[in-house]
């Protein structure tokens, strides 16, 4: 009887450990709400890094300005289905384009795109 309880306790601990490590690895962004914290001509690069994290793409322009892009994929419930989800449901892409002059935000644009629009490169519009 003690072995049965011991085995159940070990299995529970292993399940909890796996569950906690799986959650810890995910980097969750909420671009739609976090972008509201950025104010053009007021917010700094440091504040943008605090609110949105490291950009997914970063470009330096010839005039010394910088552009940062953030992307997030939102999957429908059907699209999240294991093994067959890619052929079911849909994906939406949220993007944020932040333009800096020196260390100050000049523009901050949020867009929600379909998969087709995202693949066509309409992010930079």
Count of helices?
Answer: 4
Using DSSP, what is the number of strands?
Answer: 4
CATH class group = Alpha Beta
Low-confidence stretches: none
Instruction: Work out the strand percent.
Output: 25-35%
User: What's the mean pLDDT score?
Assistant: 80
Strand order of the largest sheet: 1-2-3-4
Helix content: 25-40%
What is the total number of structural domains?
1
Q: What is the molecular shape?
A: elongated
Give the H and E element order: HHHEEEEH
Architecture in CATH?
Answer: 2-Layer Sandwich
Distance linking N and C termini: 67 Å
Q: Give the helix/strand class.
A: alpha+beta
Descriptive notes:
With 125 residues, the chain is an alpha+beta fold. The protein has 4 helices and 4 strands, in the order H-H-H-E-E-E-E-H. The longest helix is centred in the N-terminal third of the chain and has 24 residues, at 2-25. A 4-stranded antiparallel sheet has the order 1-2-3-4. It starts with a helix and ends in a 6-residue tail after the last helix. Helices cover 33% and strands 29% of the residues. It has one domain (28-124): Beta-lactamase Inhibitory Protein, Chain:B, domain 1 (2-Layer Sandwich). The mean pLDDT is 80. It is elongated, with a radius of gyration of 21 Å.
Observed structural traits:
125 residues; alpha+beta; Beta-lactamase Inhibitory Protein, Chain:B, domain 1; four-stranded antiparallel beta sheet; 4 helices; 4 strands; 33% helix; elongated
Summarize the structure.
Helices cover 33% and strands 29% of the residues.
């Amino acid at each position: 009887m003690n072995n049965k309880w011991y085995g159940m306790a070990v299995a529970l601990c292993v399940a909890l450990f796996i569950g906690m490590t799986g959650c810890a690895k995910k980097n969750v962004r909420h671009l739609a709400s976090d972008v509201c914290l950025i104010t053009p001509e007021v917010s700094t690069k440091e504040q943008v890094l605090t609110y949105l994290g490291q950009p997914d793409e970063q470009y330096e322009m010839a005039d010394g300005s910088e552009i940062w892009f953030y992307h997030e994929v939102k999957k429908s419930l059907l699209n999240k289905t294991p093994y067959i989800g890619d052929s079911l449901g849909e994906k939406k892409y949220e993007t944020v384009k932040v333009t800096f002059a020196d260390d100050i935000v000049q523009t901050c644009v949020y867009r929600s795109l379909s998969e087709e629009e995202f693949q066509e490169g309409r992010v930079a519009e």
